[in-house]
Amino acid sequence: MKKYTDLQDIDNIEALVNEAIQLKKNPYQFLDLGKNKTLVMLFFNASLRTRLSTEKAARNLGMQVIVMNVNAAWELEFEEGTIMNLTASEHVKEAAQVISQYADCIAIRAFASLTDKEKDLQEMVLSSFQKYASVPIVNMESATAHPLQALADAITLKEFSGKKKPKVVLSWAPHPKALPHAVANSFVQMMQLLEVDLCISHPKGYELSDAVVKNTTVIYDQEEALRDADFVYVKNWSSFQSYGQVLSQDPTWMMTQEKLGTAKFMHCLPVRRNVVVEDAVLDGPNSLVIAQANNRTYAAQIVLKNLLENQ
Ligand code: CP
User: Fold this and answer.
1) Contact 150, 187 (CB under 8 A)
2) Ligand 1 site, CB within 6 A
3) N or C terminus of the chain with fewer C-beta within 10 Å?
4) Confidence (pTM)
5) At the topology level of CATH, where does 7-145+296-309 sit?
C-alpha cells in the first residue's frame, strides 16, 4: 500500500481484515516499525473518533504524532493560478511540500462543502495534497469517502458474522442537518468487496451516486428492505441529486427495536438518539456501535503499518 485515500488502495480486503484482527490481539508488537517516524494529522473539520483512534494507532506503532486544526490556524489556497489577495495565507503547493519535510505520512480530514457538487467530487483538498506532498496520504474522511470507517466496519462485520453471506441493509435515517455522503459511499463500496447480500433503503430523492451504487439493490420500502436482515447499518445523508438538501425528516425512518428485530445494529457515530435511532436499540444487546468505534484504531493501525512497511 502506497497511500490510503480510497478503497481501491486495498489489494486484498479479506487479508487486510484478517491482519487487523490479528493485530488487535497484540497491538504493540510492531512498536519499532514507527520509531523516528512522524504522522502529521491535518483537520479541516472536527473529529472525536478519527482523531483519537488514528493517533492511538500511530502511537501503537511507535510513531510520533503532530496534529493541526488547519482552518482555525492557517487558511490555505487550493485554486491554481489564483491572485491571493484575499484571506488565505499560503498555497497548498508550498504547504504540502513543507509539511512533507516534517512528516513520513500525512493524514487529512476535509469534508464536503455540500454547496459545490463539482468541487466536492473533485476532492480538491485531498487531491491537492496528493499532488504536491512527497509522503503517503491517508484519508480521514474526505468529500466523498471515509475509507478508514469502512475498514473498521468490515472488521466489525467479520467479527460478528456467523454466516458465510449475511444480509446487510444500509438504511437512511432522518437528521436535522445536511450531512455528507462519504460514510454511506464507502460503506456501500466496502460491502461490494465482501461476500454479503447488500441492499440500500432510503426515501425517494436520496439516491446515492450511480458510480457508488452500481448494481446494488435499492428498496424504497424500509420494512421490505429490513426483512431477514443480519446487519442493519443506519446513516443519514443529504440528497445527492438536489445536492446537499434536506428533503425529508420523516420520523418513521428512525430505526427502532421493533424494526431491527434480531439483526445487529451498526452506525459510525456520532449519532443523534431518538432522531436517527431510538434508545432501546443503542442500549440493547444487538448494538455494535462501540465495537465499531474500537475497531477504528485497528483499521488505522493496519493501514499505517502497511504504509510504513512500503516506505
Ligand atoms: N465516525 C467518525 O468518523 O467519527 P468522528 O467524526 O468523531 O471522527
Assistant:
1) yes
2) 47-50, 141, 149, 268-270
3) C
4) 0.98
5) Rossmann fold (3.40.50)
